[in-house]
C-alpha cells in the first residue's frame, strides 16, 4: 500500500509498505477523509518526537472498516467510523487511573504517526477497535466528522481541564483550530466573558462565531496588560493553545488566585518555564496548572459527535481549505506547514 511518510527529520515522501494486519481486538481501516495537523508539522520539520524513518504520518481521520479481528464485537467491514488521534490500550493501570493518554508511559496513548504508522496510508491499523472507534452518526458530514479526531476533543479538553463554570471570565491564548474549539467548549460550559488572543482575520471571525466576547492581538502589545485593563482585573481561567513557553508566564500574570491555567499547546522550544515567585503567591497562590493530551476513546467520540449531529456545534468555519483525492494529502500538509493567512484547517476527502 501507499502512504505519505516522514523519511527523516525535515523530509517527507510517498512510500510503499505492507498493508497492516489486524490482531484479534483490532481493525484495519481505510481513510475516507483526513486532515493534517500542526503536530504533523512539529513531528517532521521540528523533530518534535525525535528521528523517525519511513513512518506514515497523520492522526486525524474518518474511515471505513475493511477488516476486524475475531474478538471485535461492535464493528464490521463497511462501517464508517470516527478515528480518534489518541488510541489507548484500555487495560493498562494508567488507563484505569483515568489517564489513558499515558497508557504505556508519558503520552503513550498517542500511537498514530508517533509509535506506529498513521492515517495517511491507504490502510491503517486501529488497536482495540471496540474501545477506540465510534460509529459515524447519520447526518454528520464526513469532512466535519474528521474534526472529531483531534481538534474538537483537544479544544474541549482544554475547556474541561480549566473547569470552566457559569459566568467565568476565561482567556484563550492562541486561536488556531484547537484554540477555536477551546473557545467553543468554554462557551458551551457557560463562561460569561471570553477573551480570545489572536490576530489573523479568519481566526478572529471564527472566534467571535464560537462565542468570544473580546478578541485581542498579541501583536498590539503585551496581552497581560490588555486583558487586565479590559477585564479590570484577573480572569478566572486561562487556556493556552498557541505560542511557546512565554504563554505560561502570560497566563500566570492574568489568572486570579485560585484560578486555573489549562494548557493543550505543544511546547516546542525552551527548557524551562519561568514561574514568577510573587505572581505565584510565594508558592501559596492556589493557582492550578493542568497540561493535557486529548483523551481518545469511543465514549469521548460518541459524546462529542452528538454535538455535531444535533446542531450544537458547527465546525464549518474551521474548514477553510478542501482537497479531493488521496494524493492531495501532501499538498494539504504543505499548506499546514506554510500557514497562509487565510488558513484555519485543511481537510482532504478521498
Ligand atoms: P495552530 O498553529 O494552527 O494555531 C496556533 C495559533 O497560535 C496560531 O494561530 C498562532 O498564530 C498563534 N500564536 C502563536 N504564538 C502566539 C502567542 N504568543 N500568543 C497567542 N497566540 C499565538 O495550531 P493548532 O492546530 O490550533 O494547535 C495548537 C497547539 O496544540 C499546537 O501546538 C498543537 O501541536 C497542539 N495540539 C495539542 C493536542 C493535545 O492533545 N494537547 C492535540 C492537537 C494539537
Ligand atoms: Zn493533531
Write the layout of secondary structure elements.
Blueprint: E1 2-8, E2 11-16, E3 27-34, H1 38-45, E4 55-56, E5 61-68, E6 80-83, H2 93-96, E7 124-126, H3 129-132, E8 134-135, H4 142-145, H5 151-161, E9 169-173, H6 177-188, E10 193-197, H7 201-209, E11 214-216, H8 223-231, E12 235-240, H9 246-254, E13 255-263, E14 288-291, H10 298-309, E15 319-324, H11 329-338, E16 345-349
Parallel strand pairs: 9-10, 9-12, 10-11, 12-13, 13-14, 15-16
Antiparallel strand pairs: 1-2, 1-4, 3-5, 3-7, 3-16, 5-6, 6-8
Helix pairs in contact: 5-6, 8-9
The structure holds nicotinamide-adenine-dinucleotide and zinc ion.
Give an account of the 3D structure.
The protein folds into 2 domains: 2-150 and 294-349, Quinone Oxidoreductase, Chain A, domain 1, CATH 3.90.180; 155-291, NAD(P)-binding Rossmann-like Domain (Rossmann fold, 3-Layer(aba) Sandwich). The chain has 11 helices and 16 strands. It has helices spanning 38-45, 93-96, 129-132, 142-145, 151-161, 177-188, 201-209, 223-231, 246-254, 298-309, 329-338, and strands at residues 2-8, 11-16, 27-34, 55-56, 61-68, 80-83, 124-126, 134-135, 169-173, 193-197, 214-216, 235-240, 255-263, 288-291, 319-324, 345-349. Strands 3, 5, 6, 7, 8, 15 and 16 form a 7-stranded mixed β-sheet that branches. It has a 6-stranded parallel β-sheet with strand order 11-10-9-12-13-14, sandwiched between helices. Strands 2-1-4 form a 3-stranded antiparallel β-sheet, with helices on one face. Strand 1 and strand 2 form a beta hairpin. The protein binds nicotinamide-adenine-dinucleotide and zinc ion (ZN). Nicotinamide-adenine-dinucleotide is lined by residues 37-39, 42, 150, 154, 173-174, 176-179, 197-198, 203, 218, 241-243, 247, 264-266, 293-294.
Amino acid at each position: 500500500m501507499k502512504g505519505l511518510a516522514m523519511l527523516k527529520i525535515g523530509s517527507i515522501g510517498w512510500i510503499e509498505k505492507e498493508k497492516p494486519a489486524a490482531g484479534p481486538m483490532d481493525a484495519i481501516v481505510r481513510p475516507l477523509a483526513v486532515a493534517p495537523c500542526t503536530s504533523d508539522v512539529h513531528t517532521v520539520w521540528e523533530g518534535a518526537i525525535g528521528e523517525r524513518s519511513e513512518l506514515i504520518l497523520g492522526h486525524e481521520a474518518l474511515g471505513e472498516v475493511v477488516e476486524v479481528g475475531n474478538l471485535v464485537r461492535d464493528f464490521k467491514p463497511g462501517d464508517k467510523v470516527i478515528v480518534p488521534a489518541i488510541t489507548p490500550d484500555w487495560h493498562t493501570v494508567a488507563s484505569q487511573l483515568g489517564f489513558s493518554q499515558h497508557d504505556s508511559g508519558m503520552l503513550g496513548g498517542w500511537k498514530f504517526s508517533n509509535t506506529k504508522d498513521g492515517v495517511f496510508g491507504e490502510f491503517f491499523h486501529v488497536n482495540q477497535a471496540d474501545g477506540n472507534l465510534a460509529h459515524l452518526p447519520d447526518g454528520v458530514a464526513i469532512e466535519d466528522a474528521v474534526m472529531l479526531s483531534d481538534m474538537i476533543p483537544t479544544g474541549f479538553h482544554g475547556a474541561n481541564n480549566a473547569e470552566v463554570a457559569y459566568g467565568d471570565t476565561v482567556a484563550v491564548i492562541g486561536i488556531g483550530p484547537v484554540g477555536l474549539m477551546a473557545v467553543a467548549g468554554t462557551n458551551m460550559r457557560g463562561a460569561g466573558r471570553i477573551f480570545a488572543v489572536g490576530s489573523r482575520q479568519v481566526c478572529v471571525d471564527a472566534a467571535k462565531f464560537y462565542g468570544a466576547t473580546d478578541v485581542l492581538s498579541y501583536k498590539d502589545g503585551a496581552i497581560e496588560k490588555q486583558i487586565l485593563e479590559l477585564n479590570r482585573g484577573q480572569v478566572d481561567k486561562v487556556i493556552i493553545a498557541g505560542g511557546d513557553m512565554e504563554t505560561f508566564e502570560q497566563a500566570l500574570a492574568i489568572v486570579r488566585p485560585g484560578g486555573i491555567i489549562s494548557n493543550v499547546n505543544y511546547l516546542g522550544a525552551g527548557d524551562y518555564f519561568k514561574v514568577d515567585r510573587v505572581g505565584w503567591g510565594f508558592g501559596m497562590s492556589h493557582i492550578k496548572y493542568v497540561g493535557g493530551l486529548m483523551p481518545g476513546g469511543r465514549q469521548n467520540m460518541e459524546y462529542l459527535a452528538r454535538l455535531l449531529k444535533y446542531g450544537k456545534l458547527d465546525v464549518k468555519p474551521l474548514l477553510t481549505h478542501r482537497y479531493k483525492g488521496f494524493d492531495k494529502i501532501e499538498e494539504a500538509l504543505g499548506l499546514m506547514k506554510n500557514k497562509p493567512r487565510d488558513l484555519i484547517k485543511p481537510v482532504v476527502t478521498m
